[in-house]
Amino acid sequence: MRAARISCAAVSCCIAVILIFCSALAFAQTDSGTVSGRVLDPAGRSVPGAKVRLIDIDRGIAEQSATNNAGLYTFRAVHPGR
User: Fold this and answer.
1) How many domains does the structure of the chain reveal?
2) Are residues 47 and 68 in the same domain?
3) How far apart (Å, rounded) are the C-alpha atoms in residues 63 and 39?
4) Are residues 37 and 68 in the same domain?
5) For residues 20 and 5, what is the distance between their CA atoms, to the nearest angstrom?
């Protein structure tokens, strides 16, 4: 009977740990993402210093960035929109 109690306690503990872990993952969800890309000229070469603009037409917000030396740009914490 003692072995059954230990087994039941171990199972209960494992279930509790799994539930805590899963709830932590649920809180890690966010409602924003990242938009990134590369600006190239017609010959396929990178365009450093190009101005890139991201417009949220739903909120009326615009963000501006410039490409790095490799022609790459990134906008972080972008909310979903159209």
Assistant:
1) 2
2) yes
3) 17
4) yes
5) 22
Divide the 82 residues of the chain into consecutive groups of 10 and give the mean pLDDT of each group.
60 65 61 92 96 91 95 91 71
Q: Which two tokens stand for residue 62?
A: 């615009």
- One domain for residues 35 and 23: no
Domain residue limits at 72: 31-82
Residues 39/67, Cβ–Cβ less than 8 Å: yes
Is residue 81 within 8 A of residue 33, CB to CB? The reply is no
Do 50 and 37 share a structural domain?
yes
Tokens of 52: 């890139």
**What size, in residues, is the chain?**
82
Asked whether the whole model's pTM tops 0.85, one would answer no
